[in-house]
Amino acid sequence: MRKNKAMWKKFKAFFKQLLPKQAIPYIDELKTKQAHYQFREVMVSDIKELLQLEKIVYAGETPWTKSAFLLEFYSKQPHLYLICECENHLVGFAGIRLFGGDGHITNIAVHPDHQNQGIGKWFLEELIRHAKASGCDTVSLEVRVSNLDAQRLYRRLGFEAQKIKPNYYQEIAEDGVDMLKRL
């Protein structure tokens, strides 16, 4: 038990060294009639809010754990994770991992109170732009079969359904639609 505590303490100290000392500047803004949104890259210090937002967006579930976010953020695999804030509150996040000519969108979540404001579209366009600039040939993602609004948005941006992945979302026993956009 003591050995585990010592290892955990070293692990936490190591990751604290990697944290940015100051906030990452905003990379873009989106103004709507309802609000003013600011976008920036994710910092490790955002993870607690990411988990809280996941619970709101995914009906109490957290598809990604703190450990999953940490592994992704510190992965050597090229990636980009962005957040959207409104009045200093996290209202959305999205991420993409680049591998073998494909940019795979790993997450996209927008608080229900801020949906239909263009945030999801902004995230998708920025992730697609990043994949293209990085030399990817395709961008892929999975979406719940029941999430018809998201599927409509993805189709408007050029994604096409490839196949159904049975029971892809095991925690809720729902199939996923595998979607692909050629760049």
UniProtKB/TrEMBL annotation:
Q: What is the lineage of its organism?
A: Bacteria, Bacillati, Bacillota, Bacilli, Lactobacillales
Q: What is this protein called?
A: Ribosomal-protein-alanine acetyltransferase
UniProt gene name: rimI
Keyword Acyltransferase carried by entry: yes
What keywords are assigned to this protein?
Acyltransferase, Cytoplasm, Transferase
Its family remark reads:
Belongs to the acetyltransferase family. RimI subfamily.
Sorted alphabetically, which PANTHER family does this protein's record hold?
ACETYLTRANSFERASE (PTHR43420), ACETYLTRANSFERASE YPEA (PTHR43420:SF44)
**What Enzyme Commission number does this protein have?**
2.3.1.128
Q: Name one Pfam family in it.
A: Acetyltransf_1
- Give the first-level EC class, as a single word: transferase
Indicate yes or no for the key word Transferase.
yes
- A GO molecular function held by the record: N-acetyltransferase activity
InterPro entries with a match to the protein in the record: AcTrfase_RimI/Ard1, Acyl_CoA_acyltransferase, GNAT_dom, YpeA/RimI_acetyltransf
**Top-level division of the source organism's lineage:** Bacteria
N-acetyltransferase domain location: 37-183
